Amino acid sequence: MAKMMKVDTSQAPPLEAAVAVRDDHDLLNPGTPFNPGWVEDIHINASAVERRTDSLKNRRSLKKDWQAAWLLRAVSCMDLTTLSGDDTPGRVKRLCSKARNPVRQDILKALGAQSLGLTTGAVCVYHSMVETAVTALKGSGIPVAAVSTAFPACMAPLETRLAEIRASVAAGAMEIDIVITRHFVLTQNWRALYDEVCAYRKACGKAHMKTIISTGQLATMNNVAKASMVCMMAGADFIKTSTGMEAVNATLPVSLVMIRMIRRYRELTEFKVGFKPAGGVSSARDSLNYLVLIKEELGDKWLGPELFRFGASSLLGDIERQLEHFVTGHYSASHRHPIA
């Protein structure tokens, strides 16, 4: 029998604050004129990056009540995602239902957290499922994010990609996850990358733009850093590691590089840009490593869905399973915690 317990959130910003701020979807990155000097000045020490992230995994540990509180925080920062060729309206509706109630009510009650109004940060779908998701989430305050711009390869003509953005916004998507043309990065054509992302920014209108740079296909840490900076100059509200469909997706080292670029952009412009690791973040332990990295590198203001998201499909199931273990002392079968 689960016993009632109050989760200690003293080591994490209040979850209520993160939930409340989700309604503010008006703050967009205005971008800056293209500044090649900001790009040329970037030089990444890959060995130092690896040492920093290795020390993080070995040094930090969250236990008991604090771990449960941080896992609830991770849930609030998820873009609950389905991007399959066999997606159906029924599957999307089930996903939206899970986004409204991401953790079983008996677990939340045992944690003393049932009054938090916990939901995921967003639901992410293909354009053809935007209207279905918007209808299913009506009244919840949960935004719909649409992947766009010929996701995941970005190989369609530019006007086709822009039309897809406009169509998703018209259908009710409040966030657009765009992908960049990788060969602009690989050939160091930073002005072309800037112009492309500026065009995406204009097509997004008032929708938040999350820019996927596909780190696993950019060859070097320097390329990852420079692409991140250029995309922020062009108006990206978030920078995102991956589509989730590359051979290598989110890792702590590339995430650290991108986070440092966000910090540098804040120093240069006084504007905060969000971060989204996607692909390969599938365990509760992974989510805690990313949250600790964000806290140490950017601070508490980034520890909420307005500035931090996980691209997640299987992650929620593992977090819910870990929370049940915290409550009962026993691990349940994974199939007891479906993501939808």
Summary, kept brief:
By secondary structure, the chain is an alpha/beta fold. It has 14 helices and eight strands.
3D architecture notes:
This protein has 340 residues and is of the alpha/beta class. Helices cover 46% and strands 9% of the residues. The protein contains 14 helices and eight strands. Strands 7-6-5-4-3-2-1-8 form an eight-stranded parallel β-sheet. Helix 4 crosses helix 13 and helix 4 runs antiparallel to helix 14. The two termini are 25 Å apart. The N terminus is likely disordered.
In the CATH hierarchy, what is the architecture at level 2?
Answer: Alpha-Beta Barrel
As residue ranges, the low-confidence spans are 1-5, 13-25
CATH superfamily: Aldolase class I
Our count of domains comes out at: 1
Q: How would you write the strand order of the largest sheet?
A: 7-6-5-4-3-2-1-8
Quickly list its features.
eight-stranded parallel beta sheet; 46% helix; disordered N terminus; alpha/beta; TIM Barrel; 340 residues; single chain; 14 helices
List the helices and strands and how they pair.
Blueprint lengths: L14 H7 L14 H5 L5 H14 L4 H13 L1 E4 L7 H12 L4 H7 L10 E4 L4 H7 L7 E4 L10 H13 L4 E5 L2 H5 L3 H15 L3 E5 L8 H13 L4 E3 L11 H18 L4 E3 L7 H14 L12 E3 L2 H14 L12
Parallel strand pairs: 1-2, 1-8, 2-3, 3-4, 4-5, 5-6, 6-7
Helix pairs in contact: 3-12, 4-13, 4-14, 8-10, 10-11, 11-12, 12-13
